[in-house]
Amino acid sequence: xxxxxxxxxxxxxxxxxxxxxxxxxxxxxxxxxxxxxxxxxxxxxxxxxxxxxxxxxxxxxxxxxxxxxxxxxxxxxxxxxxxxxxxxxxxxxxxxxxxxxxxxxxxxxxxxxxxxxxxxxxxxxxxxxxxxxxxxxxxxxxxxxxxxxxxxxxxxxxxxxxxxxxxxxxxxxxxxxxxxxxxxxxxxxxxxxxxxxxxxxxxxxxxxxxxx
Length: 212
Description:
The chain is of the alpha+beta class. The chain is built from six helices and eleven strands.
């Protein structure tokens, strides 16, 4: 995959006050979800899927709840100029998807929401996602709508752009790199930080498709 942009400082993550919620260290969540065998830490209590309507890479409205109903939904906030963590997360998910049977991948939707709508036009997002998997769904919109989604998910807020070496045309955006996994019950039971290997992703996706 071509990432020929000049080196940038490593992305700094938004402080999440231990992710803004407790991971696998609070009382047990609702009956019916079993986190056994999962590589990702469990969210307790699980997070409801946010009310979020943005634009897809074709410019059409995309209602997150409606368009992903009944699917295992991986929701990831990032940006195409991210120098390291965003491409790593998506590359690992894409590699995992190649290991899965079509009946499993057909029940999964991967949603990428940009936190940099100034640079991430629909065309830019589409071209970038195609490097990983043409089936990944890219969304963009105004900053207020994206910030509202962060609030609903207790992820804080995307931080203001930070110029690189005083050049206002080049900047990084601080953001969470967690991938939230919403099962078919529209609840995020698991949050995936960086460092999850493709084989671990593949195992978890097989299990999560059956959950919820």
